[in-house]
From TrEMBL:
<feature type="domain" description="PAS">
    <location>
        <begin position="273"/>
        <end position="333"/>
    </location>
</feature>
<dbReference type="Pfam" id="PF13426">
    <property type="entry name" value="PAS_9"/>
</dbReference>
<dbReference type="InterPro" id="IPR013656">
    <property type="entry name" value="PAS_4"/>
</dbReference>
<dbReference type="InterPro" id="IPR001610">
    <property type="entry name" value="PAC"/>
</dbReference>
<dbReference type="InterPro" id="IPR000014">
    <property type="entry name" value="PAS"/>
</dbReference>
<feature type="domain" description="PAC">
    <location>
        <begin position="346"/>
        <end position="400"/>
    </location>
</feature>
<protein>
    <recommendedName>
        <fullName>histidine kinase</fullName>
        <ecNumber>2.7.13.3</ecNumber>
    </recommendedName>
</protein>
<feature type="domain" description="PAC">
    <location>
        <begin position="220"/>
        <end position="272"/>
    </location>
</feature>
<feature type="domain" description="Histidine kinase">
    <location>
        <begin position="418"/>
        <end position="631"/>
    </location>
</feature>
<keyword id="KW-0418">Kinase</keyword>
<dbReference type="InterPro" id="IPR000700">
    <property type="entry name" value="PAS-assoc_C"/>
</dbReference>
<dbReference type="InterPro" id="IPR035965">
    <property type="entry name" value="PAS-like_dom_sf"/>
</dbReference>
<dbReference type="GO" id="GO:0016301">
    <property type="term" value="F:kinase activity"/>
</dbReference>
<dbReference type="InterPro" id="IPR036890">
    <property type="entry name" value="HATPase_C_sf"/>
</dbReference>
<keyword id="KW-0808">Transferase</keyword>
<dbReference type="InterPro" id="IPR004358">
    <property type="entry name" value="Sig_transdc_His_kin-like_C"/>
</dbReference>
<dbReference type="InterPro" id="IPR052162">
    <property type="entry name" value="Sensor_kinase/Photoreceptor"/>
</dbReference>
Length: 637
């Protein structure tokens, strides 16, 4: 391209139109620079800076065109400096007046040069993008520096040789060094002993920065320990990535790392506790009967021991509730209290009797614990049970033995009393009468003595019979129990005593629950009913209106048998503690022997029951017997 002739305006215009910047040509009214210099020419780019104002008014001055950049003093100084030789470009910051609504900030570079003493040109170039790109970079660089300084992650940058050329404050803190002690060191330095979780050395070629440099790969979440001199082990979680220059060439790598020592220790502690907990749960699983039920009692899980003892398959248990195993031993109140406790969040402990699918009863020591969800709401119940059937049966047998032993001791005392008192009395009487016979009295006296011997013999026989009745209670203990219908036994006894009832004109009332059954030794039931009804007949008042009421019903696992009369009654204040004793009578009835109530009480107690009496002298008596519905399975605690 040939050089332009600066004194030839035509040549200048052609050249200016081809330039990628704004060109203004001004003519000064004097031989010196003046803000009153008028615009002679503006190329298309210059016109675009000011839109169409330049074309509309060709007599614009420098002052008018460049007014947005500053006041007159500023413009005078600016353009005077531009006219000096070897002047540097000047940056002008202004808002384009035609873009006020857009509020666009513009930055321009200006250069000026004279073409003649009165003609000069100004070059104007929009540098907004370049300027603000530089400012943005500086701002971002400042922000990045602030982030690196304040972030909890340690950050280091290494060159191609692995030398640390940058480290932030967190890196220094984590590595327990000052920043100037870290920089210029090598990341694989032996000053930092780096180990695996098992304590073995961590190979330098497997370090994240080594991989980032040698394989140009990004490494995520690599964990290893690091031990600085005089420091305890620290565990780091490290990310590393290669760094490239503008041309895509590898120039180093950067790594960010986090001190996870506390987290690691916590994880190890949790892991240890989890292992211990798992061992405990495994032991419970192997030794205990375990199930989990929802808040409605529906079984969600049952272990193998639960399946075995229940007799049901796992499929039969899951989705059903524990009522499937209900033995109907515990009252309704027992279950209501249990559910009230666990529903309120309290653990529950107790002994439950269950029944298997095959009908066998088994006893379980049971612990129920509520389980909670993340919102602290009860979501299910964990039941841990232990089979104590053998222990309960052993306790039952022990209690039975103690129960029977107590009864036997009482009987033995009575037995000893009969032997030591009654039989000794008879023996003494016999000796006295025999001595009289040996004295050879007259015939009439001998006959009287023989009659007395016969009477004593009968009394002795009666005493021996009573002893036999007492002993027979023991002998009957081993006899099998049978299901007896109460009303049939009562009617059988009333038929036996029918003559005595009718002769005394006694009215009988029978109020027995329909089809009431009792598992019992039949001879015991017969003896108990016979003794109670015959006693009532024996002590009836011999006048109109005499009655005996016999009632029976089931109540709370027991059968209640009651015999009520309006006979002579008993003064309980005087005789209450002797009423069930042997040979105790309370009226001058020649038929009274004082053995019936003693035998009745003994039989009732052997069955695990009790007998009570309510009586008022001259008004009548009521005897009430409580016998377990199934005496053979009753446990006496």
């Amino acid at each position: 391209m040939e050089p332009i002739n600066q004194t030839d305006p035509t040549s200048f215009v052609l050249f200016a139109d081809s330039l990628p910047m704004g060109v203004f040509l001004f003519e000064s009214p004097t031989n010196q620079f003046s803000l009153e210099s008028k615009l002679v020419y503006a190329n298309p780019i210059a016109k675009s800076f000011f839109e169409s104002d330049v074309d509309k008014n060709s007599s614009l001055t420098i002052r008018e065109i460049f007014f947005p950049f500053g006041n007159e003093e500023f413009l005078t100084q600016t353009f005077s400096s531009l006219q000096k030789e070897k002047s540097s470009p000047i940056y002008l910051d202004a808002e384009n007046p035609k873009h006020e609504k857009k509020n666009n900030r513009k930055v321009y570079t200006l250069r000026a040069q004279a073409l003649s003493p009165q003609v000069f040109y100004i070059l104007l170039e929009d540098a907004t993008k370049q300027i603000f790109a530089g400012l943005s970079f500086q701002e971002k660089e400042s922000q990045l520096s602030h982030v690196l300084k304040t972030m909890i992650n340690g950050v280091v940058v290494v060159n191609l040789q692995g030398q640390i050329i940058y480290a932030n404050d967190s890196a220094a803190k984590i590595l327990s060094l000052e920043i100037d002690q870290i920089e210029n060191k090598y990341f694989a330095s032996k000053e930092w002993k780096q180990i695996r979780e098992d304590g073995s050395p961590f190979p330098s070629e497997e370090l994240p920065l080594s991989i980032a440099l040698s394989q140009q790969k990004t490494v995520y979440h690599c964990e290893h320990g690091i031990i600085a001199e005089g420091e305890k082990i620290k565990w780091l979680n490290i990310n590393a990535t290669p760094i490239y220059d503008a041309e895509g060439k590898l120039e180093g790598a950067t790594a960010s790392f986090l001190d996870i020592t506390e987290l690691k220790n916590t994880q190890n502690t949790i892991g240890l506790k989890n292992r211990k907990l798992k061992a405990i749960l495994d032991a419970i699983e192997r030794s205990a009967i375990v199930s989990i039920a929802d808040t409605k009692g529906i079984i969600q899980r049952a272990n193998q021991k639960f399946v075995q003892i229940s007799g049901y398959s796992e499929k039969e248990l899951l989705g059903s509730d524990h009522k499937k195993l209900n033995s109907k031993f515990h009252p309704k109140e027992f279950w209501e209290k249990m559910w009230k406790d666990i529903s309120s969040g309290r653990p529950w402990e107790g002994i439950i009797r269950n029944q298997s699918k095959q009908g066998n009863f088994f006893w379980l020591q049971t612990y129920i614990h509520p389980l909670y969800d993340s919102n602290d709401n009860i979501e299910s119940f964990l039941s841990i049970r232990f089979d104590i059937t053998e222990e309960v049966e052993a306790l039952e047998n022990t209690n039975r033995m103690l129960h029977f032993t107590g009864i036997q001791n009482s009987r033995l005392q009575n037995f000893a009393y009969i032997v030591s008192h009654n039989i000794r009395q008879h023996s003494s009487n016999f000796s006295s009468l025999i001595e009289l016979l040996e004295e050879n009295p007259n015939e009439e006296e001998r006959k009287n003595i023989v009659n007395m011997l016969h009477a004593s013999s009968e009394k002795l026989n009666e005493t021996i019979t009573h002893l036999n009745d007492i002993i027979s209670i023991n002998q009957m203990l081993n006899k099998p129990m049978e299901v007896c219908i109460i009303e049939e036994e009562v009617q059988k006894t009333l038929n036996i005593l029918k003559g005595s009832i009718e002769s005394r004109n006694i009215q009988i009332f029978v109020e027995i629950e329909e089809n009431l059954r009792l598992t019992i030794i039949p001879a015991y039931l017969e003896s108990i009913v016979l003794n109670l009804i015959s006693n009532a007949i024996k002590y009836v008042r011999l006048k109109d209106g005499a009655f005996i009421r016999i009632s029976a019903k089931k109540a709370e696992g027991q059968v209640l048998l009651r015999v009520e009369d309006n006979g002579l009654g008993i003064n309980l204040e005087k005789h209450g503690n002797k009423i069930f004793g042997m040979f105790k009578t309370f009226h001058k009835n020649e038929d009274a022997r004082g053995i019936g109530l003693f035998i009745t009480k003994s039989q009732v107690e052997v069955l695990g029951g009790t007998i009570t009496v309510e009586s008022t002298e001259g008004e009548g008596s009521t005897f009430t017997v409580f016998i377990p519905e199934n005496p053979n399975k009753t446990i006496h605690f």
